Amino acid sequence: MRTSAAGLISLLILGDPAAGQDAGGPLSAIDWLSQSVATPATAAAAAGTGVAIDEPPVTEAGGALPAAVTTSSLDGPSPDGVGLIASAVSGLPKDLWGNGLTREIAERLVTHPDDDLPALRQLFLTILLAEVAAPVDAGGRGELLQTRIDKLLALGALEQAAALIEAAGATTPDLFRRAFDVALLTGAEDRACQSMANAPHLAPTVPARIFCLARSGDWDTAALTIRTSRALNQISADQETLLSRFLDPDLFEGEPVPPAPSPVTPLDWMIYAAIGEPLPTEGLPIAFSYAELSPRVGWKSQIEAAERLTRAGTIPPNVILGLYTEREPAASGGVWDRVATFQAFDAAITAGDGARVAATLPAVWAKMQEAELEVPFATLFGKALQDVTLTGEAAAIAFRVGLLSPYSEMAAKRHKPGNPEDAFLVALAVGDARNVVPPDSLGRAISAAFRAPTPSVEAQALLEGNRKGEAIIVAIDNIARGVQGDLRGVTEGLSLLSLAGLEGVARRAALELMILERRG
Description:
Elements (H helix, E strand, L loop, with lengths): L36 E2 L1 H10 L37 H4 L11 H10 L6 H12 L13 H13 L2 H11 L4 H13 L3 H9 L5 E2 L1 H10 L3 H13 L5 H11 L18 H9 L24 H13 L5 H8 L10 H17 L2 H17 L3 H13 L5 H12 L4 H7 L5 H11 L10 H11 L5 H8 L3 H16 L3 H13 L3 H14 L4
Antiparallel strand pairs: 1-2
Helix pairs in contact: 3-5, 4-25, 5-6, 5-7, 6-7, 7-8, 8-9, 9-10, 9-11, 10-11, 13-14, 15-16, 16-18, 17-18, 18-19, 19-20, 21-24, 22-23, 23-24, 24-25
């Protein structure tokens, strides 16, 4: 494997459903986080229901004595301003949120759809990760920080969420839950358990405690904790059976496995996998795909998980490159056909054999279109293709691959347009679309945005009200509306991006609109 998935960022990583969704707390974009630690609220709920999984931590002697649950405040005066990308790199102003209010900003982030064009998806991820000033009403509470982290998790950006949590230096139970779940899904469960053990202000819940005791080899204490918790009616009979099976699967051989809960949490997923009854990640939130990047998982599952995450823009393209070229395809059809065509093209481009590149490029491009992986493919091969002399269909494809890559201007300047569409694409790439006749209705909607920018009334009002961040999110949403057939949204969204100083992003999005044909 040329670039291992394990070679991704390795940071503090260590998860509760919908914590903090009350009227006064942070908004959450997710409902599948594990109940890994107890909080005062969940402890009170447990007392009322008698079946909750929360329980005071076991002491060193192995007893189940009550212990006070405490929380600590977020470090620093403005946790909502914490980010991973400085303004000089992100291209976003330090006062991105301006006069915007935390609740309204959070609502826009939470409700933003997850199916943007690649260029717009990267812009949205940049907004979530940018180091900018906290909203004017932040008050040091970290509400927007938690919303940003939750949105990253919902988008499958686990490494980025983990890095943001670490950068915040936060030790609150809510953020610890999120870090814990990231650790489970990215293969750092031992570090997660160690972090839990090193945080005495946290009260791990029964499943999390059992999981970590088992990971550390303390089977006797784990078994005692299960029996005590069941005797106190703090876990259900199904939970007792599942956790007991987790400790000793052989004792339950041939017996039915308790049904999976809904929603499935990362801790649930890990426990079912450990007892030999792994739950399929297809149909689960995209974040669970990370768990299938592990070398312990079958190659096909690794590839399919990497394709989902690459398509979402949350892992680098070289991960899928490494997986596609790891070994010979095991069969034919579906994913194996993509692997075979990719390997044939990769071998041709690596050898610098123009004839083989011309023969293999159309097939691999069709497979990348089928999987909606055109932009990652372009990122990997866009520059190399510019150095290969091609003609006919292969040349036309190479031109478009180059335009979707970081080397779009180079590809445009080297191309001699032979038709109006190519001429328009060249003009877009070099920033001169105002002076070229558009080839169709979509082109006219795009051209209008650069010739006479006219954002939507809502976006313009936000921009004029010093709420640029919210205006940009509205612009992205407008373009998404345009992709579904409302071409006015294309004009309005690209117009706002251009007026907001993001013309480079607007040009990339326009090229993707023309080339990728992501239209409703």
